[in-house]
Write a structure and sequence with these properties.
The complex is a heterodimer. Chain A is an all-alpha fold. Chain A has four helices and two strands, in the order H-H-H-E-E-H. Chain A has a two-stranded antiparallel ribbon with strand order 1-2. Chain B is elongated, with a radius of gyration of 17 Å. Classes of the chains: A mainly alpha, B mainly alpha. Chains A and B meet through helix 1, helix 2, helix 3 and helix 4 of A and helix 1, helix 2, helix 3 and helix 4 of B.
Chain lengths: ~150, ~120
């Protein structure tokens, strides 16, 4: 049995000359063209943290008892809090719809034994799931079901 | 640290991907109902009452959803913020900034598990 070939067997021992420039942002980054929406999409990470910590606060209040829960709900009635939550809602809804646009482009040509579904399938499935799940959450938290 | 981050990349990427989907599907509904509609008295009066909400989130499935709705978005957010920092500040500080982002996500995840266990 022969030894495995080494891919770097013919590699020069001397360091090659640098052919590429140091990395730098492209022209007009981040304020123009697609860069702005790209940066805004990245910045939704901050909104995700804010929303997740809000849910954590709610669950902790729920665990602390009725008084803590009612105090938290009362604090949510402040107009600045309502505006803040509305901003998070708009920001994360925009994130979701953009994510659903980007998602199909990240999928490989084959997914296990199956061929990659069409872009239309992804669009209908993801946006449909968004509508159904959001509606379901609205109905449950709104008291219409469960 | 750089080697560790590369080794953990598959785990971080999985949490990030799951977090993106959880944020997209769960957060808008939660924010709309608890953050906007509830305080504006649009909902049925007892919809967000303590007993009802405790009943929903005290159930094992409710606990699981609550833990996922807190922990996974923290990992998705951490990955987004890390890459935003690379775009603006370069890769040089990533070995400091990335662990900080993921440490926040990890601490939040632990807090989430403790919070749902206390329900």
């Amino acid at each position: 049995m022969s030894a495995r070939a080494r891919v770097d067997a013919m590699k020069s021992s001397a360091a090659p000359p640098t052919r590429t420039a140091d990395p730098s942002p492209p022209d007009h980054f981040p304020g123009r063209g697609n860069y702005l929406s790209y940066v805004a999409f990245g910045a939704t990470g901050i909104l995700m943290w804010l929303a997740a910590f809000q849910v954590l606060r709610a669950i902790r209040a729920l665990g602390a008892g009725e008084e803590a829960w009612n105090t938290m709900l009362a604090s949510f009635r402040h107009p600045s809090y309502v505006v803040f939550h509305a901003f998070l809602f708009v920001g994360l809804t925009w994130f979701a719809l953009r994510f659903f646009q980007v998602f199909p482009k990240t999928q490989p040509p084959r997914m296990g034994p199956f061929a990659r579904p069409s872009d239309t399938f992804f669009k209908v499935a993801l946006n449909g799931a968004f509508v159904v799940v959001t509606l379901l959450i609205a109905l449950v938290l709104g008291g219409a079901i469960l | 640290m750089k080697t560790l981050l590369i080794k953990l990349e598959p785990i971080i990427w999985a949490l990030f991907g799951a977090g993106m989907m959880v944020v997209a599907l769960l957060m808008p509904g939660w924010l709309l109902m608890v953050g906007v509609a509830g305080p504006m008295d649009v909902l049925w009066a007892e919809a967000l009452s303590y007993d009802r909400m405790h009943g929903l989130f005290g159930h094992p499935i409710g606990r699981l959803i609550a833990a996922a709705a807190i922990a996974l978005p923290l990992w998705a957010g951490a990955h987004h913020i890390r890459h935003l920092a690379i775009d603006f500040g370069g890769i040089a500080r990533d070995t400091v900034f990335a662990p900080l982002c993921y440490a926040v996500a990890l601490a939040g995840s632990v807090a989430a598990v403790l919070a749902v266990l206390a329900l």
